């Protein structure tokens, strides 16, 4: 797991980190909408 991380260039690492953060934020936002906004939409 660590080998491929060390072999990557800095730009590639940044891309992977930003991509992962984007996915996590998107999932969190969708879950937030489902949990928080759902009662308001259905009522």
Chain-wise SSE layout:
Layout: H1 2-7, H2 10-42
Transmembrane segments: 12-35
Keywords: Membrane, Transmembrane, Transmembrane helix
Which parts are unreliable, with pLDDT below 50 for 5 consecutive residues or more? none
Work out the helix count.
2
Instruction: Tally the beta strands.
Output: 0
Distance, first to last CA: 48 Å
Helix proportion range = over 70%
Query: For the report, how would you describe the main beta sheet?
Result: none
Mean model confidence by pLDDT: 86
Sketch the topology as an H/E string, one letter per element. Answer: HH
Shape: rod-shaped
How many domains make up the coordinates? Answer: 1
- Roughly how many Å is the radius of gyration? 17 Å
What is the structural class? mainly alpha
Strand content: under 5%
Transmembrane segments: 12-35
Keywords: Membrane, Transmembrane, Transmembrane helix
Structural features:
single chain; 43 residues; mainly alpha; rod-shaped; transmembrane; transmembrane helix
């Amino acid at each position: 797991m660590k080998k491929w991380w060390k072999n990557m260039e800095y730009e590639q690492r940044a891309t992977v980190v930003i991509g992962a953060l984007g996915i996590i934020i998107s999932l969190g936002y969708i879950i937030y909408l489902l949990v928080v906004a759902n009662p308001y939409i259905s009522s």
